[in-house]
What we know:
The structure holds two protein chains of two kinds. Chain A has helices spanning about 45-50, 105-110, 140, 165, 175-180, 190-205, 250-280, 300-305, and strands spanning about 10, 30-35, 80-85, 90-100, 120, 125-130, 150, 155-160, 185-190, 215, 225-230. By secondary structure, chain A is of the alpha+beta class. Chain A folds into two domains: about 10-245, Alpha-Beta Plaits; about 255-305, no CATH class. The radius of gyration of chain A is 29 Å and the shape is elongated. Chain A starts with 8 loop residues before the first strand and ends with a helix. Chain B is mainly alpha-helical. Chain B has a single domain (about 1-15, about 25-225), classed as Transmembrane di-heme cytochromes, Chain C (Fumarate Reductase Cytochrome B subunit, Up-down Bundle). In chain B, about 75% of the residues lie in helices and about 0% in strands. Chain B has twelve helices and two strands; from the N terminus they run αβααααααααβααα. In chain B, helix 2 (about 35-60) packs across helix 3 (about 60-65), helix 2 (about 35-60) crosses helix 4 and helix 10 (about 210-220) crosses helix 11. Chains A and B meet through helix 3, helix 7 and helix 8 of A and helix 3, helix 4, helix 8, helix 10 and helix 12 of B.
Amino acid sequence: MSNPQTFQIQEISAHPGSVPGQGTQRAVEVCKYIDVTTCIGCKACEVACVEWNDHPFRETTFDNTYQTMPSTEWNYWNLIKFAEDERDGNLMWLMRKDQCMHCEDPGCLRACPADGAIIKYENGIVDFQQENCIGCGYCISGCPFDIPKFNEKTKKVYKCTLCSDRVGEGLEPACIKACPTGCLHFGTKDDMVQIANTRAKQLREESGFADAGVYDPQSIGGTHVIYVLHDIKRPQRYGLPANPVIPPSYTYWKWLAKPTGLLMAGLGLLAVFFHRVSVGPMLPQPEDPAPIERQPDILEAKRKEQP
Amino acid sequence: MSALVERFDQRARREADRIGSTVVHRGELLRHPVYTRVLHWLVAISFILSLLSGFAIYSPTLFKFLAPLFGGGPRTRLLHPWFGLFFNIFFLFQFLNWLTPMLWTEVDTRWLKRIKRYTTNEDKVEPPDVGFFNGGQKLYFWAIVLSGLLFLITGLLMWFDDVVPRWIVAVSYVVHDLAALLMLAGFIIHIYEGTAAIPGTFRAMTNGTVTQKWAWTHHPAWYRDVTGRDPSEDLERVRRRQAERARTLEMWERQQDEREKVPPPTTGT
């Protein structure tokens, strides 16, 4: 959570009506750029994250790898993922810093049914507002990167904030500050994309990684965390989806079919009301008093009397 | 299995009748015993609570209106699965209780074919073969069975979303909504038919009784079964007597009018 005076909100989850102040500020899109090729897996970023966010220490899981635990947790937002791969018959050890990708089109925000539980700032940061979270967990299924995590005790969902509290004060995220190799960068989206492209070009031309490229998936409008990967054609090797998508349940269904359903329910109510008014009730027979067979039509009689 | 269910239901009905009671007055018929009535309202209450709390989560527009009813968003989220679970449990008992009278027959197919005549009140009384439940009621019952199952399955998948794959949760979300819309359509019609559209019906679920007139008008075959009399003959007899009574009354009124020198009514000119 950040200072709302520093950040202008761009989108609010499940918010009926417009977003106050939307587009009234000139905001620069921020971006974190991760160069996986220079990551040494030291986990300084993991520690910095836990330290800055004052997270309680938790048990790690040892499964014969260097990885701290199988996936990010509600109080462990930053995790180096280790993967073993092969290149030209040799072992290739891949290390990727996993955290929230801060999607341009955030699946968590699309899925969220609680007003104001997830907000996206004009600068691209997607932030959870736990005070508005109802703990339904829809965001977990909306996220293509398996990032939001549920806290059983508080019944709320947590994830990386891109250190919105630091960014709001003009500082870089804690993980960036901690990185010893300079594989983490933070700046405007334009700058980061440019640096990443330069690095990918360097890898392709000078280091023999012919398929090196920038991971900034356009299927969700790009992300505010981008990677340079050795092999952009197979992001699955790093545990990244090649084509991340938001389930249509949270897009078309939510914004088109759901209101249509509500409208139909409303029309149904109107239909039964006007059925009662026009067709009328079905009364037990015989009706008491009996209905008159033909009712004299006063207006018709008057009209006929006119010469 | 079915014998066991039958024994259980009979016992439940007996026990419920021992605690509560249904008073049948002259000219009335017992429609629903205490057990059925209690089950019906347990199902109804849990359904309405599920509906309201569910609609808060269903629509961002309704969220602000409905979530406060349950003490805010988090509590709405917490309660909704339990309301739904109770709805399913109560409806299971109602399902067993009503399974036999709700079985679909060709009478119901015929009833459904003349649904247009029914909705436009073309016929003053129902066809003579309409029994305890008509085709529409049976359709609603089976719609609840279907959507109740869908609710339960998809609801559990969404409840335990930490172990269920992401895409299954996303699909469940849609199926859950579809079940709700199906149920809501039936629910609107059900309430309307039970109150404003067919006067004399609501008391079947409160007092447990209906008038004989109501019975031969809406469920003639059931009337024949429980009274052993012909519904159309009884209707005709009452109709004849009513006409006679009206004629006599009219004659008496005319005599009174003559004595009091009241001019005859004009056609309004």
